[in-house]
Design brief:
With 459 residues, this protein is of the alpha+beta class. It contains ten helices and twelve strands. 57% of the residues lie in helices and 15% in strands. Strand 10 and strand 11 form a beta hairpin. The longest helix has 96 residues.
Length: 459
């Protein structure tokens, strides 16, 4: 078996690092700082080169805040075997360690560790003997995938398959244009690993490596796509409760009688909307990732170029019958969340419209009340004005009486009562005109102050 030895860094590539300038006698161009990394992106994570039989042990661990810890763990293994460590920021390592080959790849939310060994017997107890036990036990992250894949050069018998898969029902098919056969049970076995058996009938070393890579990716993406299923099942009961509460609130809208009821319903709707948005934010990435991983599963199945074998369920048929319903369940829960969000929005809009109408009705009652009060104030003002005219006229006539008595005392013959009687209508008319003039002047000043160009606004 030939080992591909390569250390590729596809993350955190320094800007402009290793980017050759383009120059010619007639042209000299500036190069984009990411040009070199863009070229290398298509060559990252190549498939292994497998010549002959081997056993592949594949692990997938989740990444959280342990990305650098994972890289340091890989560096530790390299130092133990005195092999070059990956560079800072590297996302993959393909290295021959002598007795085995390690293929390490770090993705967005998980990291893969693939060990390829030629010496171990198929599914034997010492399949991991070449891996340091303490190093394996201290691997950072939670384990999701653990699978042993055996590449055999002779066609396995039914007895071999039954022994290797511990009597479990297997699925299998012809792959790679009938140049190989693959069997798997899609279950965990007594050693805690999944198992895959591949018979290389007529594949060269490159084709065999690509097939092994696709089978490992198929197992990884299959389980990663199902991570959303427990979330969807847990969300089912919670969404049913929210839907029941929303239905109750919709019925209550038609029975609103008081402003207090409207405020309480708006508060409850706001609480439901906050709940739904929290669930959406908590599950959106997981559900979207599930769909993406499922698409990768179907892509890897297509790349295997399956041809069904007699009496054995194919890998594609098994996954379509068992995996697809779980993915549809996740999509259904995600659609229910989106539908709930839209329904709550519509209910909130309906209730707000009702509240607005209620406010408008209250404003109309308030304006009517203010109009009645204005009329009462006008009548009271008119009454006060009349009383004011009488009172001022009375005092003025009293003053005139004093003046008439003074004139009479001087010797001028004058009838005081007659003079008061003659002066009374004149005095009352003059007082009335004076009061109206003052009121007109005050009203004109108030109107001038209330206009946009008035003195009050200018100040």
């Amino acid at each position: 078996m030939k080992h591909a030895i390569q250390d590729v860094a596809s993350e955190e590539v320094p800007s402009g690092a290793g980017t050759p300038e383009i120059s010619a006698p007639a042209v000299s161009l500036r190069v984009h700082p990411q040009r070199s990394s863009l070229y290398e992106e298509l060559h990252n994570r190549p498939s292994p080169i497998i010549d002959g039989g081997c056993q592949v042990t594949h692990f997938t661990v989740m990444l959280d805040n342990n990305r650098e810890e994972i890289l340091e763990h890989v560096n530790d293994l390299c130092r133990r075997y005195s092999v070059p460590v990956p560079g800072t920021g590297s996302s993959c390592l393909y290295q021959d360690f002598g007795g085995f080959e390690l293929r390490w790849e770090r993705h967005l939310e998980f990291a893969n560790f693939t060990f390829i060994s030629k010496d171990a017997a198929p599914f034997s107890d010492d399949a991991l003997a070449f891996i340091p036990k303490d190093w394996l036990a201290s691997m950072p992250g939670e384990l999701v995938v653990a699978v042993n894949l055996v590449m055999v050069e002779l066609e396995p018998s039914e007895v071999d398959l039954k022994r290797w898969f511990e009597g479990q029902r297997v699925s299998g098919s012809e792959v790679a244009e009938n140049k190989a056969q693959v069997w798997t049970a899609f279950k965990l076995h007594s050693d805690g690993f999944g198992r895959i058996v591949a018979w290389n009938r007529d594949l060269n070393a490159y084709q065999a490596g690509r097939m092994v890579q696709r089978l490992c990716e198929l197992e990884t993406y299959r389980l990663m796509s199902l991570l959303a299923l427990p979330v969807a099942r847990e969300m089912g009961a919670e969404l049913s409760r929210i839907e029941d509460n929303l239905a109750t609130l919709n019925l209550s809208i038609s029975e609103i009688d008081k402003e207090k009821d409207e405020r309480e319903l708006l508060q409850e709707l706001s609480h439901l909307a906050a709940e739904v948005e929290r669930h959406r934010s908590d599950t959106n990435f997981r559900f979207s990732a599930s769909v993406a991983y499922h698409d990768l599963v179907r892509d890897r199945i297509k790349q295997l170029q399956e041809v069904p074998m007699d009496g054995v369920q194919s890998l594609q048929e098994f996954l379509e019958r068992r995996l697809t319903p779980g993915i549809k369940t996740c999509n259904s829960v995600r659609d229910r969340l989106e539908d709930l969000s839209r329904r709550i929005h519509r209910t909130t809009s309906l209730l707000r419209t009702r509240v607005d109408l209620s406010i408008q009705e209250q404003n109309q009652h308030l304006l009517s009340s203010m109009n009645r009060r204005s009329q009462l104030q006008l009548r009271l003002q008119q009454t006060v004005e009349g009383l004011s005219v009488v009172a001022i006229g009375y005092y003025l006539l009293s003053l005139l009486e004093i003046a008439f008595n003074g004139v009479k005392a001087v010797g001028v013959p004058i009838d005081v009562s007659l003079a008061k009687g003659i002066a009374m209508p004149v005095v009352l008319l003059l007082v009335l005109l004076g009061v109206r003039s003052v009121r007109t002047h005050i009203t004109r000043r108030n109107r001038t102050a209330d206009t946009p160009g008035g003195k009050s606004n200018r100040q």
